[in-house]
Amino acid sequence: MKIAVLGVGTVGSGVFNVIQENQAKIQEILGEPLTITYALDRRQAEDLDVDTTHVTVTDNIEEIYNSDVDVVVETMGGLHPAGDFIATLLSKGKHVVTANKDLLANRIDELVAIANEHNTLLLYEASVGGGIPLLNAVETGLAANQITSLTGILNGTSNYILSKMDFDHWSYEQALQEAQVAGFAEADPTNDVEGYDVQFKIAVLSRLAFGLSIDADQIQVSGISNINSRDVEIGNDMGLTVKLIAKGDWLGEDRVSIQVAPMMLTQASPLANVHYAQNGAVIQGNAVGQTALFGPGAGSMETASAIVSDVMQIAKRRYRPKNFTTTRQARMQIDERPLNYYVRFKREASKQTAEILEALGLSKDQIKIKKSGVALVLDMALELRRELEANDQLAAIYQIEGEL
Ligand SMILES: NC(=O)c1ccc[n+]([C@@H]2O[C@H](COP(=O)([O-])OP(=O)(O)OC[C@H]3O[C@@H](n4cnc5c(N)ncnc54)[C@H](OP(=O)(O)O)[C@@H]3O)[C@@H](O)[C@H]2O)c1
Predict the structure, then answer these.
(1) Is residue 310 part of a domain?
(2) Which residues contact 284 (CB under 8 A, 6 or more apart)?
(3) Which letter does DSSP use for residue 344 in this model?
(4) How far is CA 181 from CA 178, 185, 240, 299, in A?
(5) Strands 240-252 and 374-380: what pairing?
(6) pLDDT for res 319
(7) Protein residue closest via CA to atom 4 of ligand 1
(8) Residue nearest ligand 1's atom 20 by CA
């Protein structure tokens, strides 16, 4: 089967390398080899880091539109022109595999409609959780379930920073700088540290898991840039670890609650031990119960693993293409169930911790004072949380995941 690769950067070159390294296994499964015949990049063939001996390298997409390739791998990233390239390719009968979560979070329903109209496939396993086969798990392996919740660590950069703060007692700024030097964070880390990258990913994952069209803009998002290393340390002393969590909960019919926020995890949470650049997700299904997947959320070969597996899926499914499609729009709601929280008050109010909490209407049983100014609050209703957040004596509040 003939393939074109758009963008031969980190992931695109991984696609060349995975196919080259595993061609014998691939051919055994498919009964035919995968052959990259075209590549689109701004650089010339000789400037690419891959073997382009039998590849036509061009910067003109028209050549690929008019070529005989069956599948196009989009690894250039960004909304434009990648989105229009994909739309045109799908309408010209080319199947597409992409790792572009930004684009999918914005245009997935539209692109799937184009694919369906033209009997083509659009697959995107690499867009969420890099090399971890998360989308396949929810779409195929867990298809018989009503998925009731998804909880994930889906951004390696922010997880790396939080791990450095946790284990090495670094400040947020120190950890970010080190992540940039080590190549785990980009020069402009906004998308990663403010939670936008995770917002795109949980939108794509929730669409498949809950079977609903998701408006990514309606997801409540807060990132890690305001995390105080004091809370990381205090949490650590109490067996709690701070992670940037993406959480989707199914609330019945077409109602879902989706949020991205730093949360504290107890050791009982399977995600509590997902550190540094690793990603992971815990999926709750009504038949299977709890399942979890962990692994590399990024990387050249790691991400290409998911892309080439998608290309192989296309080789098997191309004669009966069927994309997951939904016409039901998710109704986004806030999950109002009572939850457990870590709270810390400003130094001047630390003596009044219990009084402030009791004045909200919380009972003594719900309040566990841990140290001066710090308490765990059990089963706090959403409206009380809101009241507490408005209290100007509050220094920090984190939702707690996992049994206490
Ligand atoms: N890196 C990861 O680990 C990872 C993991 C999961 C998903 N992804 C996704 O995979 C995609 C690619 O990421 P990456 O890290 O491989 O990026 P990258 O290293 O920057 O590679 C992108 C390549 O595409 C080229 N390109 C971009 N726009 C182009 C255009 N209009 N015409 C021709 N060439 C163009 C770039 O050339 P220039 O450098 O000249 O712009 C570059 O060679 C993104 O959607 C990203 O979100 C990445």
Answers:
(1) no
(2) 147, 148, 149, 150, 290
(3) E
(4) 5, 8, 28, 16
(5) unpaired
(6) 83
(7) 298
(8) 9
Domain range for 392 is 339-401
Condensed to tens digits (0 to 9), the pLDDT of residues 238-292 reads: 999 999 999 999 999 999 999 999 999 999 999 999 999 999 999 999 999 999 9
CB-defined site of ligand 1, < 6 Å? 7-12, 40-42, 59, 75-77, 81, 99-101, 126, 130, 298-299, 303
Residue 374 lies in a domain: yes
Residue 345 sits in a domain of what CATH number? 3.30.70
Q: Which atom of ligand 1 is nearest to the CA of 299?
A: 3
Residue at a domain's end among 70, 102, 123: 123
Residues belonging to the active site: 201
State the closest ligand 1 atom to the C-alpha of 127, by its place in the atom list counted from 1.
Answer: 7
Residue nearest to atom 24 of ligand 1 (CA): 7
CB atoms within 10 A of CB 194: 19
> Candidates 41, 61, 160: which one to mutate for ligand 1, based on the most atoms within 8 Å of Cβ?
41
pTM: predicted TM-score of the whole model, two decimal places: 0.95
pLDDT tens, position by position, 359-385: 999 999 999 999 999 999 999 999 999
Confidence (pLDDT) at 310:
98
